[in-house]
Amino acid sequence: MVLGMTKMNFTGWLGLQTRFCRPTIVSAGLVVAAALALPGVNVGASETFTTGSSDVIIQEINNQIRQTWKDNEVDPSPVADDAEWMRRVYLDIVGHIPAVEDVEKFLGDKDKAKRTKLIERLLDDPGYVRNWTTIWTNLCIGQQTPRRVSREGMQKFFREAFGKNRPWKDVVSDLVTAEGHYEENGATNFLLAQMQDQDDGAQMTAKTTRLFMGMQVQCTQCHDHPFNDWKQDQFWQFNSFFRQTAKVDHRRFDQKTGRMVDDFSEIVEKNFSGPVYFEKRSGLMKVAYPAYFGTEVNPDESTDRRKELARLMTVGERPMIAMAYINRLWAHFFGFGFTNPIDDISTHIPVTHPALFDRLSEEFVKSGYDCKQAMRWIANSEPYNLTSRTTKKNARDNPAIGEAALFTHVYVKPMSAEQLYDSLIIATNAHKSGRSGWEQAESQRHAWLQKFVQAFGTDDGGESSSFDGTIPQALMMMNGPLVQDAVSVKAGSHLHDLLTGKGSENQKIQRLYMTSLGRMPTRPELGAAQKFLNNSHDPLTVYQDLFWALLNSNEFIINH
User: Fold this and answer.
1) Alpha-carbon distance 75 to 51, whole Å?
2) What is the full DSSP assignment across 8-21?
3) How much is the pLDDT for 364?
4) Low-confidence ranges of the chain (pLDDT < 50)
5) What's 79's DSSP letter?
């Protein structure tokens, strides 16, 4: 579809200004979208907020973060207005922007504790389970499903875990000790994904320690770590816990083709006792027995080594699996964790708030590894309720350039591919315009998401699925079928319903802003849109171009 005017001309008359300083998302294909960053409403209209909770842990977060501000002589940004905060908490907890009806209801609510009440509602929303199932499925097996791995099985496991709010230690234990059919016991897919090209358990060792313990020990497979105390023998001590693990691939006869085809894979236990042998750089061969930070485990065949590992991972007041989870969760909500990177908690990486980090990890254990409770603490805290906009008194708080995070404001972050797709669906009803059926909708979603996966060839199959402004991603946003459907007037689309419904021109413009950005337009934005409508012979084109510009703006594609 070719609209009546170019989008670049449209952005020129609209006079949109830059809202965000970081991150800058500009590429050859995204110049237009970068130019469309929108100013938003005045934040800080209210300098205080009410959480509706007297939780002592929330107060502890507030006190320790405030002390950091004082010690570093910086001031926090103002409290985010309801529109900015609501959009952020929706993206962080349920993985998509709020529907316009929910925005209008929340903004009109006068309850001083409405933010805390919304957090509770979102934690009970089916979107919470879907979002966190997606996050941890991608972390455990990647966004592109490895061979002989069942994404459906992995998703089923996490849906149950987050749906029942199972203790995180039990979830990790199931993943580490899993056995059986990859769909009957979906937890097995975590280990199967790490057994693609290796049978010595090295990838299982590296992934398990990094993801669930916040330890990057992969380089110690070949040599001692150059910057911290991790030694080569420690890697192989961890590795020996996985040496009783084997993968069995099953095939079946396909009567239609007359050939043997893949059927399923499973994890089974194999006999293994004694040490693991590894080679030093000097050529010297050494041995390593199963040991967890100095705690030795019986190396006989009678010992189930992975069960012993799962047990040892929870020992102590502040075990590594608690610290790793809290650090990753904090980074999810704020954009940066207590360490940078979040999966390297070690002596050579500075911790921004060590006392707070320790306290949250300890309280997480005391809560019974309650994932929802940890989210309540963070989402109800004062720093999370601040705006993402910086001020002159905290502009230097920029961990993106290597500075220690002070959390004087919420750091902006690009949406994940899933967040962006689902938010487009919420904003546009594009899935209802010209398409029908669950299978078609899921097929379109899968195809769209796969185009956003940017594999960068790390040794553990790491991927980046965030919207980072590559040319293919930008073209999908500017000219892809999903956005084209969004700005069409096909029956069922949001634009069709808006233009065929009641309301003045001003009300329809305001509705487009509320739908896409979760806020009302500023006076200059409203005036510019009105002016162009008055000077146009084709109002439909104006609405189409305005909606396109809003959906391609930084304010839409960034979680702020």
Assistant:
1) 21
2) HHHHHHHT------
3) 96
4) 1-47, 222-225, 434-436, 438, 455-463
5) B
Within 8 A by CB and 6+ apart from 28, the residues are: 471
What amino acid occupies position 329? L
Write a three-state SS string for 294-329.
Answer: CEECCCCCCCCHHHHHHHHCCCCCCCHHHHHHHHHH
Residue 486 CA to residue 467 CA, distance in Å, equals 19
Instruction: Give pTM, 2 decimals.
Output: 0.87
| DSSP one-letter code for 431 | G
Task: Label residue 170 exposed, middle or buried (CB < 10 Å: 0-12, 13-18, 19+).
Answer: middle
Query: Do residues 516 and 482 touch, judged by C-beta distance below 8 A?
Result: no
Beta-carbon count within 10 A of 29 CB = 18
Cα separation, 18 vs 32, in Å, equals: 12
- Contact (CB, 8 A) for 501 and 510: no
**How far apart, in whole angstroms, are the C-alpha atoms of residue 70 and residue 74?**
6
Which residues are paired to 79 by β-bridges?
386
Q: Name the residue type at position 497.
A: D
What is d(CA 106, CA 86) in angstroms, rounded to the nearest whole number? 8
CB 460 within 8 A of CB 218: yes
Query: By the 8 A CB rule, do 398 and 23 touch?
Result: no
Q: For the chain, what is the total number of helices (H) and then of strands (E)?
A: 25, 11
- Residue 50 host element (H or E): none
Nearest to 129 by CA among 150, 102, 152, 158: 158
Interhelix angle for 168-177 vs 305-312, to 10°?
160
Q: pLDDT tens, 342-366? A: 988 877 789 999 999 999 999 999 9
**Cα separation of 98 and 423, whole Å?**
8
CB atoms within 10 A of CB 238: 26
**Amino acid at the residue 557:** I
Identity of residue 472: P
- Which tokens in the block code for residue 174? 């199931």
CA proximity to 155, closest of 364, 374, 442, 365: 442
What letters, b where the CB count within 10 A reaches 16 and e where it falls short, cover 81-104?
A: bbbbbbbbbbbbbbbbbbbbebbe
Helix (H, G, I), strand (E, B) or coil at 412: coil
**What pLDDT does residue 466 have?**
60
Pseudo-torsion of CA 535, 537, 540, 544, nearest 10°? -50
Helix residue ranges, H only, 15-150: 31-35, 56-71, 82-93, 100-108, 114-123, 126-141
For residue 319, the model assigns a pLDDT of: 94
Task: Report the alpha-carbon distance of residue 350 to residue 226 in Å, rounded.
Answer: 16
